[in-house]
Amino acid sequence: MERLNQSSSLTCENLPSFLSSFVDTFVDFSVSGLFLPQQQQIPQQPLQTQYPSPNRLVAIGDLHGDLEKSKQAFRLAGLIDGSDRWCGGSTTVVQIGDVLDRGGEELKILYFLEKLKREAVKSGGQLITLNGNHEIMNIEGDFRYVTKKALEEFDVWAYWYDIGNKMKSLCHGLEIPKNPFHGIPPSFHRVPEEFSHSIRARIAALRPDGPISRRFLANNLTVLVVGDSVFVHGGLLEKHVDYGLQRINDEVRDWINGSMGQRAPEYCRGRNAVVWLRKFSDEFAKNCDCSLLEHVLATIPGAKRMIMGHTIQEIGINGACDNRAIRIDVGMSKGCINGLPEVLEIDRNSGLRVLTSNPMYQNKNQYAQTKEGLGLLIPEHGPKQVEVKA
């Protein structure tokens, strides 16, 4: 902690610069296998890619390291109570990815979501989390968007994780814990020495087969179908559907668990990747490739809409392509645009509606109110707002 607080060379302005240069160093080492812990082949059961349509479905966008905004979003949908315990009953919730980066409470959010998953199951509900491009980036060692506070959080994690391992090693009969720092160099080119430990801690935690990536990210889905809604962080192309949605989920899980090398599968890298695509998320509806979207949805049996995060929608949650493309990233994190939290609700009886914390749409008796036609623009000039049904 003191190493970070006493730094004179690291500022909010130059942090992304030296972390960007670090990426090249990381890739050089990872290609040689130096950063990879010893791989273990463990048979895995296929992840569940398709779920039936629930009575109530809630979708929550990118969280980016902002714990309080994350909790506000869950409260908007009536999913947690004043003590942050699950009270959503049998609701199915989908968090669209991008928990990591831009904020300093990434681990706190990961633990918070894990706690809610367990509580939801006990009430007949479920919380499903997806991988976003920032999860993929961090597992690969791309830390360009990490914050100083986030480095501190992982520094503290490494301290207590090391203490836990030392305590385990004192117990006779227990397997000697693996050293999470095995294979990671003590320093990096162009990274200030005082931050080497923090960078090493983040690598150790998040690399393939790292303790945090294995525990919290490996069982995330990358593509999800719930009823007639397709969820993906960036977007899907026909080639992704042809490759196989189940296959994508299982392969990404295997990669995060450390059995497929350091680099992510090809369909997770590049502008047309499932976690990076923006063809259906442009702020101007006329720039969205609606014919392509229609064709992709037609290849997924029963699919009526694609629900995506990744691209910040400054006007709030909205729809394009006759509401076949629903965009739910409102940039709520203080590390983004500090947007007002909003969530998408899909009710089996009443259809789609947006719940917002925008005071323009609240009354004295309700914390969350639905938006009635907010930002309804001519499709040629801007996005079309999701229709709200009473």
TrEMBL record:
<dbReference type="InterPro" id="IPR004843">
    <property type="entry name" value="Calcineurin-like_PHP"/>
</dbReference>
<protein>
    <recommendedName>
        <fullName>Calcineurin-like phosphoesterase domain-containing protein</fullName>
    </recommendedName>
</protein>
<feature type="domain" description="Calcineurin-like phosphoesterase">
    <location>
        <begin position="56"/>
        <end position="311"/>
    </location>
</feature>
<dbReference type="Pfam" id="PF00149">
    <property type="entry name" value="Metallophos"/>
</dbReference>
<dbReference type="InterPro" id="IPR041787">
    <property type="entry name" value="MPP_Shelphs"/>
</dbReference>
<dbReference type="InterPro" id="IPR029052">
    <property type="entry name" value="Metallo-depent_PP-like"/>
</dbReference>
<dbReference type="GO" id="GO:0016787">
    <property type="term" value="F:hydrolase activity"/>
</dbReference>
